[in-house]
Amino acid sequence: MQRHHKQSWPRLLDSSKETACHFCDTLFEVELIKEGEEAVCQTCGQKLYRNRPQSLQHAISFALTGILLFSLLLFFPFMRLDAQGIIIEMPVVQAVKHMFDTGGWFIALSVALFAILLPLFQLVVILYICVPLFYGKTLPYVVQITRTLQTLQPWIMIEVFFLATVVSLIKLVKLADVELLCGFWSLIAIMICIAGAFAAIDRLELWDRIEVALQKRNES
Q: Which of 218, 71, 59, 79 lies closest to 149, judged by CA?
């Protein structure tokens, strides 16, 4: 099984793919490019795709770091409130449970789903896809899982949760002394890790690597 030079994607020589420009819809045949280079539309000049350097390694590193940071977010205090000598601090898990117990079940469910479970699922799935691809292999149902990941990506609302937290902090500082703890800074780092993991590898490259790994598995 022959492939192009080692800096390009693991595209098979007999494979032919086409892609359309997202801006002007011009159709182009996908050509392999070296790491760090990008392909642009010859009609309008918009970027078509890019071969990011060490894409899989970066995606794996960001995803693994994000998962480790989730343990800090879930089990370490998010902030400390001191209101006239009454000190309150709790991690995100306890805060969600408190909202559920006090009747705010819809908000608690939304926070748990869109700010905790789906972002964590996102990072785990990135590892599930990219770690085997790093060795030129795939795990079962990788195509269906990758499609699910890309479908759910717009619904990951950890940034919305962060903005809501900032707005709440602006109101809380007028009522109590607020100290930001480990959980808050972990949330910021998790957002960076999620953005970095998705930015590390081009979508076209990801599907290309999956296709080559599946064909290699079928031939063996």
A: 59
* Annotated domain spans of the chain: 1-51, 56-219
Q: Are 34 and 51 in contact (CB under 8 A)?
A: yes
One digit per residue, pLDDT tens: the chain, 220 residues? 233 334 455 554 455 667 778 788 788 777 777 777 788 888 888 887 777 778 889 999 999 999 999 988 888 888 777 777 777 777 888 878 877 887 778 878 887 887 888 889 999 999 999 999 988 889 999 999 999 998 888 777 777 777 777 777 777 777 777 778 888 889 889 989 998 999 888 787 888 888 888 887 777 6
d(Cα 111, Cα 134) in Å, to the nearest integer?
33
